[in-house]
Specification:
Strand order of the largest sheet: 1-2-3-5-4-6-7-8-9
CATH architecture: 3-Layer(aba) Sandwich
Radius of gyration: 18 Å
CATH superfamily: Alpha/Beta hydrolase fold, catalytic domain
CATH topology: Rossmann fold
Order of helices and strands: EHEEEHEHEHEHHHHEHEH
Number of helices: 10
Amino acid sequence: MEQAPFFADVADGPEGGQAVWAKASDEVRIRVGWWPAQGAAKGTLLIFPGRTEYIEKYGRDARVLTDAGYTVLAVDWRGQGLADRLIDDERIGHVDEFSDYQRDVAAVMSVAEAAGLPRPWHMLGHSMGGCIGLRAAMEGLDVSSVIFSAPMWGIRLNMLLRPVAVTLSTISMTFGKGSAPAPGVSAEAYPLANDFAENKLTADRDFYDYMRHQVQTHEGLKLGGPSMRWLNLALSETRALAARPAPDYPCLTLLGEAEAIVDPTRILTRMKDWPGGELMMLADARHEVLMEVPATRNAIFERLLPFMDAHGKAKAA
């Protein structure tokens, strides 16, 4: 595997982090990175990041998880981070087909296998990664349990604006304008375009500054709003997933009570019908629940780690 850049200077993660390049089946190059477990390994957590994200964003989470005995893997999906950007305006998030993200998932799993990352494997999907991860689980993802953080099982849009968004994005694709920015989005990275006081991501200033510092220091990680095509495909994918039953995996889902980016109703509906699934509601938390105030993060890891421990043992047995 060919080594790829890895920005330990901004990750604030544990020692031993590295990244490699991987090719998806259509030759798009993505970046896959991991931090090894400290001491005896209990397994591996495969993190499927959200839109605009990159490996280093999960460095602080990796500190907690590797100390607890888990190797932590994360990925730069196509069109973001250091992975291949897909349109001329690299500031805009874009994908040709939403199913292409499953090509990236397959490449990630191949890297995990080739690198000999310890089993059992678990998956954590945040935001868009939760949408990608749910589709992958429905198609038989090779993991023992699934965890979702503010999953994008629907996008929070005003009910009056939803049909407009669908219509405009469809028309734009019809006339070859699918790579144009979606209405009202900024081409600047969110932490740089929005002051802390008005942000929808976290109530923790230190974590907000952490994200801001990462994209200021390594501009290649920056990504702004989505394209018309991405919006149209994402709305279609979330509708399709909502029509299917939950896959047969142990599931823990984390949702902030102040969520304002993804659609909480879709999450509540899905988890109500997930046999044995657990929904953990987090008071006052915003979209980035894993980057929230210390009390929220502590509560999450106090539940997440025993969840993985229990289901890793059950799978091994």
